[in-house]
Amino acid sequence: MFGFGRKYDNPALIAEINETQQRWFAFLDKLEARVGEMCAAAIPELKTVFAQDKDPYKRAHGHLLSGLQGQLSLIRTKANDAREEKINGLIYAAEGVIPPITSAEGSKYHQLLHTFRMACFNRHHIFEEKLHVAMEKLQAAAGERDLETAYREQLEAFEAIKDKFNCQQCGGNITIPKMFFIATYVSCPFCQTQNTFLPSTGAQMVLHDARALAEQRTAHLRQLAERTQPRNPDLHRQYYRAMINEWNKIVPDMAGENEKFYERLLKDIGHY
């Protein structure tokens, strides 16, 4: 792949790392520009539809907003797929052929890969934050959505259907043990066949909106932290902790990732 005829001197690998990082940064720049253009065009339309929609539940506005969020999700998926293929793919390939880290030459290349990984992952984190801000702007374009009601409706809908599934192999009744937000395998208690459970679009949106709902529930703490001058890191820490706790309640399966995000938030405010 890199012309490793000489393991301890591989200018091809160094060049590939540098070029891949440049392409990755440029790729995310383009995605961010697309997100910015989309939001700039969509926000006035969202406000107009919201104002003109006579439905008390503002479903026309909700459908438009969901479609826009879906477009942003596709952009996120595109970035995630590219990261896996281009960044992680290069790292895995290189790690399989460079010298051991215990050697002087190996240490050099492992450090090079580490620097490359951190630069690319940090740039991806910046992209994710900008994407989140874009989603917040879309949601706030015509006022705050009632995410709490939507969440409660999905909990009730799940309770109504959780015992109404049958095994595709033996026909035995299957109870879905908890609310899932992505496609999941559920074992039949009779024949142990793995059945695929596909959550509804509404349930998938719970996962998508979980952070926003957690932020709505803890908005009073955020407002207190933002109003307090001089800036009080303890108040921000209390808000972040409360927000993450609510996020974990909404989607318990994401608690591990949410806690990692919490650690990054603490580092950002210098209170970790």
Question: Brief description of this entry?
Answer:
By secondary structure, the protein is mostly helical. It contains 8 helices and 4 strands; from the N terminus they run ααααββββαααα.
Q: How is this fold's topology laid out?
A:
Blueprint: H1 11-52, H2 59-95, H3 104-140, H4 147-161, E1 165-166, E2 173-174, E3 184-187, E4 194-197, H5 201-217, H6 219-227, H7 233-250, H8 255-268
Antiparallel strand pairs: 1-2, 3-4
Helix pairs in contact: 1-2, 1-3, 2-3, 4-5, 5-7, 6-7, 7-8
Q: Measure the end-to-end span.
A: 41 Å
Q: What level of helicity do the residues show?
A: 55-70%
Low-confidence stretches are 1-7
Q: Give the topology string: H per helix, E per strand.
A: HHHHEEEEHHHH
CATH topology of the domain at 11-145: Topoisomerase I, Chain A, domain 4
CATH class of the domain at 11-145: Mainly Alpha
Which tags fit this structure?
single chain; 272 residues; mainly alpha; Topoisomerase I, Chain A, domain 4; two-stranded antiparallel ribbon; two-stranded antiparallel sheet; 8 helices; disordered N terminus
Task: Describe the protein.
- This protein is mostly helical and 272 residues long.
- Helix content is 69%, strand content 4%.
- It contains eight helices and four strands, in the order H-H-H-H-E-E-E-E-H-H-H-H.
- The protein has helices spanning 11-52, 59-95, 104-140, 147-161, 201-217, 219-227, 233-250, 255-268, and strands at residues 165-166, 173-174, 184-187, 194-197.
- The strands form two sheets. The chain has a two-stranded antiparallel sheet with strand order 1-2. It has a two-stranded antiparallel sheet with strand order 3-4.
- Helix 1 (11-52) packs antiparallel against helix 2, helix 1 (11-52) runs parallel beside helix 3 and helix 6 runs antiparallel to helix 7.
- The longest helix is centred in the N-terminal third of the chain and has 42 residues, at 11-52.
